[in-house]
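A brief tutorial aside. Many learners find it easier to grasp structure tokens once they have seen a single protein encoded end to end. The record that follows does exactly this for L4BD family NADP-dependent oxidoreductase. Read the sequence first, then the structure, and try to relate runs of similar tokens to stretches of the chain.
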Amino acid sequence: NQTWVLRQRPVGDIKEGDLDLVETPLEPLKDGEVRAKTVYLSLDPTNRIWMSDVDAYLPPVGIGDAMRGGGLAVVVESKHDGFQQGDVVNTGLGTWTMYPTLQGEGLAKLPILPGVPLTAYMGPLGATGMTAYFGLMDIGKPQAGETVVVSAAAGAVGSMVGQIAKIQGCRAVGIAGSDDKCKWLTETAGFDAAINYKTEDVGAALDKHCPDGIDVNFENVGGQIMDEVIARLNDFSRMPLCGLISTYNATDPVPGPYNFSNLLMRRTLMKGFIVIDYFPRFPEGIQQMAQWLMEGKLKFETDVVKGFENAPSSLSRLFEGKNLGKLVVECSPP
Ligand code: NDP
């Protein structure tokens, strides 16, 4: 078996040598266990958080421990009555390992829906889809006619947020890092407007595309982009604080937001959230997202990198903005 193990804590960007690929023999299965072969590994910004020794929502991965991460795997051997060879399972908060040994008890078997590719379970029907769904619906509480702004809009979470906002009858404005991404947002995903933060004046573009101000800011990025949005929030606006990707590789404390006082003046509700808190409600979220997906109301993209050995080096795609949609590593043929 092959497993990616954390060798040292990265400083700034992840570098070669921060993780090691380790070979270990597979132990015989015990009663109640299931062995699976990884098909897709999910690469997420939070992988980077887990590598740092910071006070986060979960303890950091220990030095010498298997890297934490989720994915989809196909059962190759089972000593649990509920699973048989060929079943596809969600490894949840698993590890970056080629042949995970999983407890059958509580293991999630994927409901295979007609016409829905496996990659959908990594995106709209997976953890990032649930992040978008619950963050927007539960905290953002979008009302028809309101304006919803989302940053990292062409990524896994952001692309879903804008589309759900549209389904709710809102104006959806996305902020992303390339013209191609902006084109995808407006021409394929149905956003009303998209702003390329690398080439445009974000504040001026927000003024142009959000003539009635901003009612919901779904925050994925932090830093200067967040500041520009905060400055344009409406009275009683909501701000699901989902992520701050612009700060995850920072080696020094990140200053700001400078427009913080506007949260007071506008009586904004800001709430940080972590999707795992919504785990008990996943069936509800998956059912709704699956319905929208089957009705053709959600478009999604998957950025597929091939080869388990490429997992650590591919994580930088998220920080360099190379991915459109959900970044995954294909470890074996789906
Ligand atoms: P994405 O698929 O959105 O990939 C990350 C994107 O962020 C990149 O494609 C890039 O797009 C953008 N980005 C990277 N660095 C910067 C930067 N310095 N400034 C502006 N944009 C940047 O990842 P996810 O959808 O998985 O995650 C999006 C956010 O949601 C992250 O902050 C993540 O931590 C958070 N998250 C939170 C969860 C929770 O439970 N709270 C669960 C899942 C995700 P671009 O080309 O536009 O720059």
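Self-check: The pocket of NDP is lined by residues 44-46, 128, 131, 152, 154-158, 176-178, 181, 220-221, 225, 242-246, 273-275, 318-319, 321, 323, 327 (CB under 6 Å). If you spotted this yourself, you are ready for the next section.
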